[in-house]
Amino acid sequence: MLSRNPLIRLLRFLFFAVAVRAVVLVALGLTVRNRARLPKDGPAVLAANHNSNLDALAVMSLMPLRLLPKLRPVAAVDYFFTSKAKGWFVTNIIGIIPVERGSAKKGGNPLLLCEEALDRGEILVLFPEGSRGDPETLGPLKKGIGHLACARPDVPVVPIYMHGLGKALPKGSSLLVPFNCTVNVGEPLYGTDSYNAFLAKFQARITALGDEDKKPAWD
Amino acid sequence: MTMLFGLPEPVVTATVGVWALLIAATSLVFGLRWRRPGHYDELVSRTMSWWWMIGAFTFAILLNQTVAIVFLAFISYLALKEYLSLIPTRRIDRGLLLFAYLAIPIQYYWAAIDWYGMFLVFVPVWLFLFFPALMALRGDTKGFLRAVGTLSWGLMLTVFALSHMAMLLVSGEVHNPVAGGVGLLFFLVVLTQFNDVAQYTWGKLLGRHKVTPDVSPKKTWEGLIGGVLTTVVLAALLGPYLTPMDWHWSALAGAVLGVAGFLGDITLSAVKRDLGVKDTGGLIPGHGGILDRVDSLTYAAPAFFHFFRYFFTP
């Protein structure tokens, strides 16, 4: 659950309304295709390809600020909770839902918090590839998105393909270089009874979205 | 010269004229849409974007010279960012591209302090030599010539060429007793943008014979000639009011602007063709990217600046 402390809520609002929008609009510049396909309200899952630490902020900036209290990026515990300050920031300001990697093998349901959030009508921002991987390429999908979609089959899963963020701030770099980014929003998908079938459909749709735009070489 | 709101009075009057034209054009477009709903959506979004662009330009020149220079530098920044995002780039050059952005404040600073010599050599001499050497020192030779060539050309076009607008604003101050540097900048920008619209409109109305079928199939001789002639007429009317040029010289300047604008337009079209994109970006609804809007200015700004400097600066 997001903090109800009014001061923290104000800080979170200011962070997204001022800092994130300034970076996304001035330092980057997003070209958004098919904006009308974004959900008007929760519950929903925004599932994007992952190349940069800016990805979550870029996806969140696509949604109106009115929906900010419902916007929750899903992130791995081990990566973001390395220090107390970082943990506080990602929990309260970014508002992430933590997922413990590998907990399924221990018999737990790693997506429990995500399912609860969807039941509260929240909008999850999720990266089905799991990690950022190679810059500007779509890596193999993890099964999590399939399980989540099948557990909540009436929640729309909106595939989003982003290009350019991996050039602006790739893995392993802390130097932001301005690049224009393209964001292509796809038609929503819904879970069925087979998570493998969902994964295949999702993979096909996000790949097709990525192929709609010509991407300059990055070699 | 008489001043009004801190601006030369002719510039204020001409700005009011531009807004009147915009309001008239907007009424016309909405009238068209009202008669045939659904047919003019593209034209409507184009027109609405003009409100933003003319609004930003008016705001920038109205406040003071520093704001105007920062505004023009920001246009260079958006143009360079769009260009670097479109072209193939090497991963190794990522950090170096940050230096390329740094060229913008420096180049506009030379303009702001009216250091003409440094303004002229900074990009075509110093940066031209600096970036290839930096790339060589980093040691990756694969794709070296492509990286050097595309970066140098992009800097020349988006930083050097466009910064002539700022130089005109600053250096024109003492050479234009009629309406100052801002009068010259206004003449350049408004006529170049007007020329774009005029060429487009004449092309839509009468266009039959293509000028460059392989580069920009929508450009026709009818559009080009009609556009340039319209610009010449408007320049002859506006020039004596905003600049020290009489109507003959103003008409000639209008022709220079019209033809240079056309050349800038098709040069950027050739780049887009080569890269396989239709628009350079999605920043301006109905127009495309910022480069789609300032392509004509990349040629018209240096052409008009040096035309004016050669004939009207002692």
Structural account:
- The complex is a heterodimer of chains A (219) and B (314).
- By secondary structure, chain A is of the alpha/beta class.
- Chain A has one domain: 3-Layer(aba) Sandwich (Glycerol-3-phosphate (1)-acyltransferase).
- Chain A has 8 helices and 7 strands.
- The radius of gyration of chain A is 16 Å and the shape is globular.
- The mean pLDDT of chain A is 88.
- Chain B has 314 residues and is mainly α.
- Chain B folds into 2 domains: 69-175, no CATH class; 177-314, no CATH class.
- The longest helix of chain B has 29 residues, at 247-275.
- The two termini of chain B are 20 Å apart.
- At the A-B interface, strand 1 of A face helix 3 and helix 4 of B.
Task: Explain the layout of strands and helices.
The complex is a heterodimer of chains A (219) and B (314).
Chain A: H1 6-28, E1 30-33, E2 44-48, H2 55-62, E3 71-76, H3 77-80, H4 84-94, E4 97-99, H5 112-119, E5 123-126, H6 144-151, E6 157-163, H7 165-168, E7 181-185, H8 195-211
Parallel strand pairs in A: 1-7, 2-5, 2-6, 3-4, 3-5
Antiparallel strand pairs in A: 6-7
Helix pairs in contact in A: 1-2, 6-8
Chain B: E1 3-4, E2 7-8, H1 9-35, H2 41-63, H3 65-86, H4 94-112, H5 116-138, H6 144-171, H7 180-206, H8 221-242, H9 247-275, H10 290-312
Antiparallel strand pairs in B: 1-2
Helix pairs in contact in B: 1-2, 2-3, 3-4, 3-6, 4-5, 4-6, 5-6, 6-7, 6-10, 7-8, 7-9, 7-10, 8-9, 9-10
